[in-house]
Structures are given as C-alpha cells and as structure tokens.
Amino acid sequence: MHRSSISRLVIATTFIAYVIGILAAVGHHLFYRSLAGTQAPDPNDRYKIIYKSYVSKQEVNIIGGTALAFLVKSALGTAISMAYVQLFWKTLMQSTHRTTLSMVDTTFSVLTSILSLSKVWTWWRYPQLFGIAAIAALLPLASIVTPATLTIVQKQITPPQTAPSQVPNVGFASLNYVDYMTPPPSAEVPAVYFYTGPSKAAFDIVQAVAAQGSVAAITPPAINTSWTVGFNGPALTCSDVPEQQSMAMKLNILNATSNITALQTCLSYGFLAWTAIGTGPDDLSTVPFYSTDNITYTLSTSGSNPISFNIPAILYMAALPSAIEVVEDQAGARTKFCNVSSIMGSQSQLDVLGENSTFIQCELVNASYSVSFDYRNGGQAVEVNTSIISANQSLFPISSVFGPSLTGWDGITPVDTSDGVPAPYVDATILETLSYQAIMQSFLTQILGSVSLRDLGAVDYLDTAIINTALMQAPELNFLTQPVVPPGMDSWGNEQYNTLQGAVAASNKTILNSLVNNMTVPYNTSLATMTEELFKNIVVSMMSAPELQPNYSSPFAPEKVVVTTYAAQNYYIYNAYRLWIAYGLAIAFTTFAVGTGILAIFENEGTYTHDFSTVLRIMHSGKLTVDLDDKNTDARGPLSDKLASAVVTLDKPDGMGTRARATAQAKDGSTIELLDYPHDNEGL
Fold first, then answer.
1. Phi, psi angles (nearest 5°) of residue 611
2. Distance of alpha carbon 584 from alpha carbon 112, whole angstroms
3. Omega before residue 486 within 30° of 0, cis
4. Exposed (0-12), middle (13-18) or buried (19+): which is 70, by Cβ within 10 Å?
5. Please, what is the Cα angle at 387 between 414 and 364, to 5 degrees?
6. pLDDT digits over 404-423, tens only?
C-alpha cells in the first residue's frame, strides 16, 4: 500500500464530522436537560432583532434545539457520505460480476437522490453499498424525532393561593328581587308600600332555570377558582299529602266536575297544581277548587297573584294519570273518569281519581344554604347543601310594609299600628321575606294550573306552564308527555285522531311509525324530590344576574369569602430516553458506516472524494475504439439504452504511478476503450 495515496484530509474530515455529530447530540441532550422542569417563557417575553421584528424566548429555545438536531444530522451525514465514497470505488474496482453503466449511475447518485434506492434490481448485487446508502437516507429521521422530545405541559402551582374576595352572592336583604312597591295616595307617616310581584330579573332567572333544571352559569371572580358561600334563603319541603286530606281533595275534584253532566262536555283532570287560600291560619282551604255557590268551581291559584298573604305559602300538586286514560267503548274513545259508569262496573269516579294518583304538598320555609363552587378549565361544578332552620314553620308572605315618607320618617318595618307610629329602622327580616315570596311567586307561575281532557277525549286542555319545566322528567308526570293515541270525535260526530303524533303512532305503516320517537327516558327521582331540587337550583341561580348582586355598601351585605385560586404555569418536560433512542441508533449506524469506509480505504490503498475531478481521472474519456453518434454522447439528455447496458470494468491500481484501464462493452460486442492516464503521486 502506498501511504502517499491516502489523504489525511479525507480521513480527518470523516472523523471530525463523526465526532462533531456525537458532541452535537450530547449538547442537544444537555441543552434540553437544562430546560427540563423550568418554567416556559411567556410568549410576550421577546427579543428585538431589527425594526418592528421580534423573536420570543420560547422561539429561541425551539430554534436552538432544532439547530442542534440539524448539526447532528449534517455532521453524521458528512461522515457517512465520505465512507460511502470509499466503499463505492472499492466495490466498483473489485467487482467480479457484470456491471453496467446504469448500475454505476444508480449507486453513484444515491447520495444526492433517494429515489435511486427504489432500483432494487441493482442493489441486490451490492448489499454493502445498499446498507450504507440506506443509513444515509434514514439519518434525517433522527433530526425529526429529537426536537419533539422537549414539550410544554401545564402544571398547577402548589399550594393553591387563597384570599378573601367578593364572589357572586344573593343578598336577599334588599329590594332587588321585588317589583316597584307603590304607596296609596295619602299623607300617612310612615307611608305604606304594597307588594306588587317579583322583579323582572328574578322572574327571568326562575323561568330559565325551571326550563333547564340545573344551576345557571355563574361568572367566577377568576378562572380556576373554588369557594364555599353560606346564606339563609327560601327552600321548599315537599311530602305526600296525608290520606285524610287527599281524600278531601279527591272529593273536591269530584264535586267540581259533577255539575258537568252532558256527555259532550265531560271533563277529566290529569294534573292539578294550586295553592292554599284563606284569610288567615284559622281560615285555610287546601282543596283544589273553591266555590261560592256550589255550582261554579274555580281552581285555587289566587287569580293573577298566586301568593296569598298572611297564610302559609304552600303549593299542592296532584297527578291523576288514570283519570285521563283514554279507553274505547260503543260510543267511541273516552277517558276512564268520564266512561266509568258504562265500562268499569262497580268502580266509581272517586276510585279512578285515586288509581295511581299522587298528591304532594310543598311548603316555603327558611333554610340555611351551603353552596360550593368549583371552576376548572371553563367548567362549572356546584354542590348545594341545605338544612331547614325551623321545621314545620312555613313562611307567611306579606302584602305591605312601612316605608320612608316625605315627612321625614326613614325606615322599612312591618305594618303594625297597634303601638302607634314605630321608630324608624330597616328590618332585614322583612326584606328577606319580600325576596323569598318574590321567588316563590315566580316559581308558582311556572307550576300552577291544570291539564284536562274534554269532549270524548278529543281536546287536550293545557292550562299550566309545567310542561315547559324540568319537572316533566319526574315519573309521576311522564304520562303527560305521551300523545293521546285513540281517536276522538270532531264537532260533527266524525271519528278523528286527536293529534298528528297520535295518528302516526297508531299507524301500522313503518314509514309513519319512524316519524315519532317512542323511546322514553327513565327517571327515578320522585316529583317531590325534583321540586325541592329545582327550587334550590333556582335560588342559587339568582347569583348569575348582575341586577341581583348585593350592594356591598349595605350593612346587610354578605361578607367576603375565602377563594382558592388554582394557578397553573407552563413547564418544560424532556424525554431523554426518546432522544437517545434516536441519536443512539443514528450514532451506532454511523459508526458502522465509518468503520466500513476506513476498511475500504485500506483495501483501496488510497482515498477517494466525491469530486468531479476524481470521476474525470478514473473515467477519463479518451480515445474511443468505436464510433458513437452525437445522441449517445450528448450528456444533456437521458442515458441511451446502448450506453445504459454497456458493461463497465475498471482496473484496480496496484501502486502509485500505475495506470488504470477502463473499457465499456456494449451489447453488440463493440468495446469502448477509455484513454489510459497515470495517477498522481499526490493523494486526493
């Protein structure tokens, strides 16, 4: 071997590139490890580069990691390429089988065109070359994987921060919940102001929550916070009506419908909701209907104002599914209540009213609330716990209060003239009672009324808004959501379906049946429990209205509560294992390629480069022994078939100054002899 043919520069460059690649990989690891566990920079924390051009610190970190990955890929790629060149010329010089010019093109160009790897009919002859070429082609994958080993995650700061703060609250000791209270035209001292109903804000909240069933969205003081607030507020306690009292209610319903004897006007009630009426605790009527002449009966809903003053605020509800169940007889479709005399034998209308019926009563009481709020990532979680302050003590709505007058009396007190003019002061209990009854009145407007069937079950009367509330999910009221399927009679005595949905459900045509969803959602919560929970959700939802927030300058305003804030920060997380899997494979395969290249240098007794001069000196186009037309020798076009199939042979140099001979043999047997030339005494 002639050492002068071995270029120290080639070997040094190969090893330097190899070492730089390893050091860059180690540097990449150390850089990411230094960032791991640290707080990621704020996106607004930036460096100014030039006029109105900035780069954030986060971008600098990304650029740094990507640059190191690129350096690893470039350095190791350079070492692999130089090793491949040595192996390429060694393989070409020592090839013992037929090597065509097309094969030489494929193996020579693979470092610049990965598409050359697709020519498998060439590479199976040169497995060593293919291995090194595949390593060079797949090396960039490491530079794709490794930058992704540094990621950003959000971690909660521990311990959470706590501080007293004003939060959404109720503030019932105010006039926010009632409509404008007006005095009569008089010069009384103090003036008397009369309750006129709930404020629009309170009524709107009740209507919305009654429909959706859950607590309304309440804006927290900050994102990712939690707190617990306590206050006294109104609540409903619901229970079954005692048997003796429910019997009186059923008899009252029977009396109210008994005066309607004509078959065409028979009336059957399926649902009733009413309030107690009377002039005082000793004059209290709890039955659904009242009458002054025992002929005309009116449902006890207190007219336009469902609140009765000076008596307990009690809501009653009756669900009577059997009474409006539609059955068939000779006369057509009728309710069981109206048809009992002809098809039910000894069963009376009173029995039908009691069949599968539910009678409940809900009293308005004062309760202690403890409400826990938890807001995480935009979600709202509310837990409501209540305890009754005074059991079996219903609240008594009030009709009027003493208030400020032009003569200078300044206060809000109960109306009580037994001791003359009271001393002026503000009675918080009176304000709370007004707020409670305003919420109760708004709630009653969503419940009170009736559902009935009249005229052979042909007409469905809905005189209540309960069908628009979440209480329709209670199992006791589920029957109200079902269409009346059997046909009724029109005003001319002709049979017809009551509703389009009923007609479709009764059809035997599949295409019609598919238009109605007959699935029912099972709910196991009783009507009494659902009513209590819905009212609690309404009370808590009052916090969602800005108009109902307490004025914190008031002496009755709630105190601040401790708010826990769950702050989070962005931190770097580094997966060193994944980085070293990628870089370890890249370095291992590069080591194999470089070792193979070094062995090729010793077998070649010299070094080669990928320069054009190297190709020119080895494949010097000298004098040809065959004539080729211009088309075949024009290098600007694709390689002709004649030259592509030509066999290429090269003589291996046996020492410094020896001469190489190259011939190209075409398919027709002609030989192209390339001009001999002496090698330089200098290494490449």
1. -80, 160
2. 25
3. no
4. middle
5. 45
6. 887 777 888 887 655 666 67
CB atoms within 10 A of CB 361: 20
**Sign of the Cα pseudo-torsion (527, 529, 531, 537, in order):** negative
Task: Give residue 379's identity as a one-letter amino acid code.
Answer: G
Strands 225-240 and 561-565, bridge-based pairing: antiparallel
- For CA atoms 252, 256, 262, 263, the dihedral sign is negative
CB neighbourhood size of 621 (10 A)? 11
Cβ-contact 488, 456 below 8 angstroms? yes
Tell me whether residue 464 is exposed, middle or buried, using C-beta atoms within 10 angstroms of its C-beta: 0 to 12, 13 to 18, 19 or more: buried
The secondary element (H helix, E strand) that includes residue 299 is strand 298-299
Of the given ranges (33-37, 89-93, 128-132, 662-666), which has the lowest mean pLDDT?
662-666
How would you classify the pairing of strands 283-285 and 332-335?
A: unpaired
pLDDT of residue 163: 92
Written as six digits, the tokens of 480 are 């109200």
Burial of 90 (0-12, 13-18, 19+ CB in 10 A): buried
Of 122-126, 273-277, 372-376, 582-586, give the lowest mean pLDDT range. Answer: 122-126
Q: Which residues contact 285 (CB under 8 A, 6 or more apart)?
A: 276, 277, 278, 300
Are the C-beta atoms of 131 and 520 separated by less than 8 Å?
A: no
Token duo for residue 351: 């029995």
The predicted model gives 261-286 an average pLDDT of 77
Instruction: Give pTM, 2 decimals.
Output: 0.68
Q: Is 175 helix (H, G, I), strand (E, B) or coil?
A: coil
The size of the chain, in residues, is 684
Query: Please, are residues 98 and 33 in contact by the beta-carbon 8 Å criterion?
Result: no
**Which H or E run contains 332?**
strand 332-335
Buried b (16+ CB within 10 A) or exposed e, 427-436: beebbbbbbb
Say if residue 166's pLDDT is above 90.
yes
CA distance 568 to 153: 10
- Cα dist. 682→4, 319, 661 in Å? 6, 110, 19
Q: Give residue 533's identity as a one-letter amino acid code.
A: E
| Token duo for residue 578 | 């994944």
pLDDT value of position 578: 94
Q: Which amino acid, 2?
A: H
Q: Which two tokens stand for residue 60?
A: 């600098």
Per-residue confidence (pLDDT) for residue 59, from 0 to 100: 87
Report the C-alpha gap between 278 and 312 in whole angstroms.
10
Of 586, 574, 570, which Cα lies nearest the Cα of 29?
574
Report yes or no: 149 and 578 within 8 Å, Cβ to Cβ.
yes
List the one residue out of 283, 274, 278 whose CA is nearest residue 309: 278
What is the three-state SS of 187-209?
CCCCEEEECCCECHHHHHHHHHH
3-state helix, strand, coil in the chain (%, to 5): 40, 25, 35
The Cα 449–Cα 297 span in angstroms is 14
DSSP-assigned states of every residue in 555-615: TTSPPPEEEEE--EEEEEEE-HHHHHHHHHHHHHHHHHHHHHHHHHHHHHTS---SSHHHH
Closest CA to 108 of 629, 677, 614: 614
Q: Is 345 left (phi over 0), alpha (psi -120 to 50) or beta?
A: left
Nearest to 447 by CA among 206, 676, 278: 206
pLDDT in tens, 212-244: 999 999 999 988 899 999 999 999 999 999 999
The angle formed by the CA atoms of residues 511, 514 and 520, to the nearest 5 degrees, is 160
Are 651 and 660 within 8 A, CB to CB? Answer: yes
Q: In sequence order, what are the residues at sequence separation of 6 or more whose Cβ sits closer than 8 angstroms to the Cβ of residue 595?
A: none
